[in-house]
Each structure stands twice: as structure tokens, then as C-alpha cells.
Amino acid sequence: MAEQITHKKSLKRVDNEKRRLLKEYYNLRRDNGTDTAAGDAENAGNDTDASVAGASAPAPAASDREVSPQDVVQEIRLELEQGNIDVKSKSLKQLLQVQNLLLAEETEADNVIKNTIYDNYYDLIKVDGILKEMGELDESLVAQLRETCDMAQCVLKQ
């Protein structure tokens, strides 16, 4: 019997999506974990009142916190879209971050295109096989199928 054609996401696409979600989750967790670890280290180092140390711990962590690479990339991308970016004023690190992100996006787009072509080619092979099977059907089998359809129509009319 012919196989059913499905239009599901390929396993690689699903895996990439899961991997991306996990990376986002753990990056958030890692940021939160480092903030709390810094606060704990600060609290352990101080011999003063615990309430004073606890109140001052979050402020330095928030003020000393560096801008994340994603934020920098988003800022530069926004400037690129608006057309008012001065490449000379950006640091090499920022430019490399943008280049790496753009290369990753290009690679991902290429992979999506390749997966789509592969999926469609696989479906085309399936359809070709089904059509070949139908073309090779015996005439007597086709005649029996027609008779069955005619009988079914007669029964439905009654």
C-alpha cells in the first residue's frame, strides 16, 4: 500500500528549536545564578549587620553588570536597519559579535532551505512511486473497482 505523505517538521528542525529554547533558558538561569552567587559572596565577606549587607548586595550586581552580547547585537542591528550606524565608532568586539550572529543566521537559513528541498524531494519520490503503482494496475482490477463504485452509487440512490 502507498505510504501517507506527511508535512511534519524534520527531526533536525525540531532538535534545533529545542536546543535554542534550552540555550535561552540556561542563559537566563546562568545570569540569575551568577547574580545570586555574587550577592552570597558579598554577604559572606562582610562582618556587618546582615540586613545592611542584604540590602546593598543587589545594587552593585545590577550596576556592575555588563551589557549582554545579544543586547549589543540588537542595538547594532537596529542602527543598521535605520541606516545611521557609524562602523568606525563600534568596537571590534561588537563588530565581530554582529558578524558571528549574521553568519549563524545565514547558515541556519541555508540549512532550512536544504531541509525543505530534501523533504520535498522525498515527497516527490513517494508520489512518483504511487503514480507508478497506479499505472501498473491490472485492467481487471480497475474494472472490478469501477463495478464496486457503480454498486455503491446504486445503493446510495435507493
Structural class: mainly alpha
Q: Can you tell me the overall shape? A: rod-shaped
User: Main beta sheet, described?
Assistant: none
Total domains, how many?
A: 2
- The count of DSSP E runs of length 2 or more, i.e. the number of strands, is 0
Binned strand content: under 5%
Order of helices and strands: HHHHHH
Terminal CA distance reads 32 Å
Write structural notes for this entry:
Mean pLDDT is 71; it is low at 34-64. Helix 4 packs across helix 5 (92-135). The two termini are 32 Å apart. The chain has 158 residues and is mainly alpha-helical. It folds into two domains: 9-65; 67-158. Helix content is 80%, strand content 0%.
